[in-house]
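Hi everyone,

Forwarding the result from last night's run.
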Amino acid sequence: MLPGAPELHDDARYNRDVQSVVAHFGLGLDLFTVVVEAPKDGCYRHDVMAYVDRLGWALAGVPGVLSVQSLPMLAKLAASGVNEGNPRWAALPRDESSLAEAVRQVPEALRLYNADCTVLPVNLYLADHKAATLQQVAGAVQAFRAAHPLPDVNVRMASGSAGVQAATNDVIEHAELPMMLYVYLTIVALVFLVYRDWRAMVACCLPLTLATFLGYWFMKALDIGLTVATLPVMVLAVGIGVDYAFYIYNRLQTHLARGRPIAQAFQQALREVGIATVFTALTLSVGVATWSFSPLKFQADMGMLLAFMFMVNMVMAITLLPALAVVLELLFPRRGPVRAPLLDH
């Protein structure tokens, strides 16, 4: 993933400009702001300013961090500037009035402190917004906060474009598995309610699970990140993809209820709904595949992902579902007559 907006293609004008800025000026446009909460007039206290300075130096060495901007760093430059630029004076004055004079040399427009000096942001300019980079930076902040506590000073994450994205990634990481489990549990419960047979749950849901894993592989192959926008798309693909299994299994149960053997029942079911299932999948896939020509990278990625998921779910319903149903019928023969599904009444 190159620097720039992930919603746009890499060759978009904005992303090309961002890549040029990062390459020639060493200034990233992905901003990760760590907020240091301090007591009132904290920027006039040497211990607080030294703490923020140590935090900035610790984060400057994290891979992916191009530059760091904080009030102590600029205050040290101001202290050196009023002393003929002598680098020996590039340090935080221990005297409160000297420190206050150095702080006042820093323009307020930089937003590195507020009026009460209770908020002292540390701005980190990152090379990119990859999940690995954001995790490294967030981990470094957490490690520094745990290893170097200071009374009445709190280090909080995070603001800026990269900070918000890091928080979003963290929420998605914790919400992905529960959301998918809720969807699958709902589908399993509905399948059992309709068909009243555990074989139906296995035959309909196992191909769907395999198709979902193939969808994650497809996302990794195309470098489509799992974001707050792509996660609902995956859930949508699961909900639509299981319909193909219902088309076929519902007709299968109908023919089994009429006393036909499993092989003949499947042959008849595929004759009746197989073409319709394939046509439905093709129609949906071709329709969303046209999104891949969109100048918006997000829309193009979602078009390819949905087209892939629709086709894979259809293939699984046509191939794996019959195989599973036949194997389960041979291994666990039914003891009583098959009841026609509720959807067939």
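The chain has a mean pLDDT of 83.

Cheers,
N.
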